[in-house]
Amino acid sequence: MGINSLEQLSDPIVSRIISFLPQNDKVNLLYTNYHFYVLVQPLLYRNLLFTKSAALSCRHTYDESLYTVIGGLKTPLATASLNNKISKTRQSVLLESLTINSELCKYVENIVFAGSYSNDAKVESFHDVISLDLFEYVMKNCPNLKNTSAFDLSNYNKNFTKQQTVQLDSLKDLGSIINSPIKHLSIRSQDNLTDFNGLDDNLLLVFFGQLQTLEFNEDISQSILLDKLNSLSQNVSNDKEPLFHLQNLKVVFYHCFENYGEKLSSFLKRIDFKVLKRLEVAVGCDDMTCDCLQNFFHFLTKQDLKLQNLSFVQKTAHREHNYSEKFDFHITQFLKQYASRESLKFLSIRHAPPSDFNVGDGFEGNYLHRKALYEDVLPLLTNLETLICPTFLQSVAGYEQIISNLLWNGCECEHCNDYLPIFDKYILKHQYYDEEKSRMTDMISPILFGNVARVLSSRLPTGCDMFLDSFPPVCRYWDFHSAPYLITHSGECSIDKSASPPIAICVAHFLREYVDAIGLMIPTLRRCVLSGVFFDRIPVEGKDDNWVCSDQ
Fold it and tell me: C or N: which end of the chain has fewer Cβ atoms within 10 Å?
């Protein structure tokens, strides 16, 4: 007998189906009858994301089902003031709902606070994103709240010892959490703590031994803490016994400290790699003659790694092409030598292009060298399902000959034929401040498309790339005049945030050629995200590569 209605299914099956619905569909289903009202509520309130932006619609995917977004409007015409009012109003409604119906509080388990991106490098304060009344009410009255996290925000310094996740702003606060059942620890800012007086060594070792996630976001705190942990590890009788049973790990390997490699290697030797599933490495060396990266990646290939999720982040103080190619060379060599490539499902690679996209030796031939490195290794990733490159187009923008093809030799569809001439005129009428030359100079295509790409990339949260698939993307728009440097124009300029969706489509059409090529190299790939533009491969009968883009 066929099933014609959700009401014919058991509640566990219906709840599972509801979990994949976007936020608005959950709300619509909730209004149909009391039975669905009861089933939808736990899934609607379980994961809450507070932001002034709106969730980005990705067709044919389940991204919008991950979190209930309490934010602003999707339209680029909404001003910052309007989005601020809308988000505050929605927070007031949520607070009223939780206050009137306290049963809803027990459903809240995970909360994320995400700042609004500003292309002039300003960072939004935590207090601007969430109402203090709502925040305090949730913290006091939601008994099942496990995790709170913040991305792209300042002044977030909350250590909630009853939760499973803590973002630590100072190692000095370790004492306040060392007796807590914390599973996920992120250390986010630089520290100058030189001793751990007052902390019991055994408690410290037990605390880090029970963690499931450990994130180091900068090298100073990492160096200080690894000194302590390595010292404690030496006192354990069996020096080959794994002491840290981490499932998720982020570390920094940057050539700027004495014995930096030795400290990290000593720590990694005490990790139980058999249980490690996600690894993120922020890596870099600013000495072109140094072989430290080669030695570090060689060390990793010798470990019993069976990673499902791997992320690389470039660290460098230089803007020359050679340093980026050095980074690309070593990570691609590692992927070639990595014995358990077949277990890898997720790969993220984030480069560090200069803010003005002025790359030293940014010639087409050098770009082709870097491209060839990836063309050699990507076909070897035979089970990869997700590839994310948050700074792909920003890196391409460093090679003016290549990025100019987007404007003058790119897509010839009706949309691009209508809009690309408008952006060509934008370039003719604008100037930007060139910091190297210390003067205003004519706008060029790398500045235009590099800034567009940087804003599109901010659809993804920053801070920990190995969890990029755990949060929904949000809408971001550029006003075409804000940047980390001055942008001016002659006469009147009518281009504003409303031009963001059209230029995003032009960018998507340019990127489609890369996605098609990557898809042929990795037949198992289901999602490719380049600079915040989402491409998802949807199975269609008779078609091998039916990619659907978020910006269409």
Answer: N
CB atoms within 10 A of CB 384: 24
Q: Would residue 457 count as lying in a domain?
A: no
Rounded Cα gap, residues 546 and 526, in angstroms: 10
- Is residue 73 within 8 Å of 59, Cβ to Cβ? no
* 398 occurs within a structural domain: no
| Cα distances (Å, whole numbers) of residue 279 to 33, 84, 150, 305, 359 | 45, 36, 20, 10, 29
Give backbone dihedrals phi and psi of 48, rounded to 5 degrees, phi first.
-120, 135
The tens digit of pLDDT for each residue in 448-458 reads 999 999 999 99
What's the domain range around 104?
46-156
Cα torsion 160, 161, 164, 165: sign: positive
Provide the β-strand partners of residue 432.
441, 487
pLDDT of residue 257: 56
CA distance 533 to 513: 13
Structure tokens at 510: 């340019």
pLDDT of residue 552: 77
Number of compact structural domains in the chain:
1
Q: What is the pLDDT of residue 157?
A: 57
Per-residue pLDDT of 469-489, as tens digits, reads: 999 999 999 999 999 999 999
